[in-house]
Amino acid sequence: MRSKRAAVIRFPGVNCEEETARALRRLGLEAEIVRWNEGEGLLDRCDGFVLPGGFSYQDRVRAGAIASREPILETVARAAARGAPILGICNGAQILVEAGLVPGLDGERIEAALAPNRMPHRTGYHCAWVEVVHEGKGSFLSRALAEGESLPLPVAHAEGRFVSREAGFFEKLLERGQIPLRYATPEGRATDVQPFCPNGSTLGAAALSNRAGNVVAMMPHPERAAWLHQVPDDIRSAWAGRKARLRLGEGSLFDAGPGLAVLAAFAGAVREGMR
Amino acid sequence: MSRTLYLLVRLRAGDLAAATAEETIRRRVRGGEKLVRLDRSDLWEFTYQDGNDFRGRLESIVRESNLFVNPNKHAFRYAEDFRRGWREEGVLVVVRGKDDLEGAVAEETLRSRVRLPGLERVRFATLWFLRFQEARGSEALALGESLAVAASPKGGLLVNPHYQDYTIELAETGEEPAR
């Protein structure tokens, strides 16, 4: 029997595929970086799919819009329908939303958007470390994150505000457990208030999942927080304290960082299937 | 009396975003093979109180700053009606963010830093010009809407209605009438 394998899809302009694949390999998966136009046979040889971060097609028209029309997304949709775990990170999340795979209540429609950030006094790109809290037991993230567990992760985007034109739509998703990650205060309380919620996202949503929980679109970058050396010294988090203790000879810069749990949840779902 | 002036700004060199969108629509969107050409402009809409030589002052700001136009890379024209003055028949799709952040930022700049008298409102949109092989009139409008609005994964490309508003209108050929 072949070992479990994840495809990390490289669209023109993405820039996080190598570190995403590296982290997945450290977690025991075979991770294959696949070009967007090499989709043939993917369903037979891969058990999970990651759409990594970056700027596919230079964010032309809208972030993720062009890539979402590529035929490989039909392959990803077929894999999602079979229950394969799919993780979209940042630009990958934008692609999954534009492809209608999340929240996926009605597979025939695009049901949401990742709109330009709404920030006080300015528009555009924003990067920062933020706190997110895990809520909703419906997605594969529950394999590695406890309900109510919070963790610091970096965000880096210009279009990260989850919105829908349908009133009450996100409340419905929250009720169904399809908002697995929300921005939070340093104490881990979900909020849509600046600066904790960095982009004005509805209900402070940082990630959405589909109904079955096997497709997750998240704006923060877990692969940029996979190792302790990636954690900044000055964030308000126990993780910064853990890093500070390195000076006392405790641990290693290559110990797990907060983002590794997210990728471990994906890797676990690929290895063992959704349950 | 309130009046409106439009500033249309486009790239002088090839517009790669428009080229990519055109190619994607043609190859991936249902009905896209009927699209012959897709162009893109920035559309700035200035509403102002008549008087105070508003247009002259605005033209001076546009000429002497990089707020709206970089003369090294942009071509631009003014219009009292953006639907007029096109060289070919086609469909105009005006796409604007529901909260129009660009328009709000430009308006604040013109009010508080440039102090442009008579200014009432600034709005920003992306203006797409779609030319079709055969479709004209209402048929062209319907085709333009289906190619533009991203309602489904196989549907249009240019507008995500969850955060953008749009209008679709016919472009009128010929010179824009003099003021």
What do these coordinates show?
The complex is a heterodimer of chains A (275) and B (179). Chain A has 275 residues and is α/β, with parallel strands linked by helices. Chain A has a nine-stranded mixed β-sheet with strand order 2-1-3-4-11-10-9-6-7, sandwiched between helices. In chain A, strands 5-8 form a two-stranded antiparallel ribbon. Chain A contains seven helices and eleven strands. Chain A starts with a strand and ends with a helix. The longest helix of chain A is centred in the last third of the chain and has 13 residues. With 179 residues, chain B is of the alpha+beta class. A six-stranded antiparallel β-sheet of chain B has the order 3-1-2-5-4-6. At the A-B interface, loops of A face helix 1 and helix 3 of B.
Mean residue pLDDT of chain B = 94
Structure class of chain A:
alpha/beta
Number of strands of chain A: 11
Largest sheet of chain B: 6 strands, antiparallel
Largest interface: A-B, 29 and 24 residues
Rounded to an integer in angstroms, the radius of gyration calculated over CA atoms of chain A is 17 Å
> Count the helices of chain B. How many?
4
Low-pLDDT regions of chain A: none
Q: Structural class given helices, strands, pairing of chain B? A: alpha+beta
How large is the count of helical segments of chain A? 7
What's the helix-strand series of chain A?
EHEHEHEHEEEEHEEEHH
Outline the low-pLDDT stretches of chain B.
Answer: none
Shape category of chain A: globular
